[in-house]
Amino acid sequence: MLSKSAVTLVQVAREAGVSTATVSFVVNGTKPVSAAVEERVRTAIRTLGYQPSHTAQALRTGKSATLGLLIPDLTNPFFPKLAQSIEQEARRRGYAVLLSDSHDDPALQAEALTTFARRGVDALLVVPAVGTAQRLRTRLPLILIDREVGGHATVQSDKVQGGQLAAAHLMALGHREVAVLAGPGRQGEPGARVQGMLAEMRRAGAGLPASALHYSGYGVEDGRAGAHALLDAHPETTALLAANDTLALGALSAAQSRGLRVPGDLSLVGFDDIFWAALSSPPLTTVRQDTQALARLAVEQALSGHAPAPLAHIPTELIVRGSTGPAPHRRSP
């Protein structure tokens, strides 16, 4: 058998007894042929081990069958999970994915967008860096995921709803002395998931002083340090809401180092449902983002060729595990 790289369209056509144009129709799906002819062509392709030239196809069609995916932080476990879902959905549609990490830096983000354009990707899927304040500059089809910026079409989880679910769960368990690990602020305001938490707490009549809202990064160490700060300032706290699971896992470490039982003395709720949430001790109650649904809708909109909806929300789901329980009697400071 010839090496796969040496097999040409002409040889496939000769093997199948058809024209090169017919082989091209089958390989590229550009024109229907009879079932019998298609089977002869595909049999010839398998027999000879023919592999179409991606470069030639891109030159001929003007399409690379490649998507550019830009995420802000590969060390945040939620984003690799999201990237995997996007890659699976793109592959199902016959597309490859080029991945880049902006490190939550708007300057690196702009550089990556330029690189994607030079690489000839057909569309862009971008989770914007924290601090992105302006529209992203690109002529390619663009769908934002997870974060709204500059009026671009965006696909994201209903974070307000997710925050409400998390807070409502604690309210139903009798918690009223609650503090919040809020993650990064958004132009001096809490993000959407924290806004949902605060709105639900207000609805339940649970006040939250400004000092019980701690802003930080999203890492485990941020959660550990933030939990210590909140519990020092508010020792009466019976529950912590966290803007993501890594913050919650850091808070779990802090609670255990202080001799607090989770959930006996302190309940914890995270957000995202990363892989490690189910493996902590106790397993973490959290709000699940449906990364497969996010990926499916984002890829569909990026490839549709039509103007997408300005904002599409995917529902979230509360996942109750072992880190939450009834509120204990209020502890004295």
TrEMBL record:
InterPro entries: HTH_LacI, LacI/GalR-like_sensor, Lambda_DNA-bd_dom_sf, Peripla_BP_I
One Pfam family matching this protein: LacI
Keyword Heme assigned: no
MF GO annotations: DNA-binding transcription factor activity; helicase activity; transcription cis-regulatory region binding
Domain HTH lacI-type: 7-61
PROSITE patterns: HTH_LACI_2
Keywords: ATP-binding, DNA-binding, Helicase, Hydrolase, Nucleotide-binding, Plasmid, Transcription, Transcription regulation
Keyword DNA repair listed: no
Lineage: superkingdom: Bacteria
CDD domains to which the protein is assigned, alphabetical: HTH_LacI (cd01392), PBP1_LacI_sugar_binding-like (cd06267)
Name under which the protein is recorded: DNA helicase IV
UniProt organism field: Deinococcus gobiensis (strain DSM 21396 / JCM 16679 / CGMCC 1.7299 / I-0)
Gene: rbsR
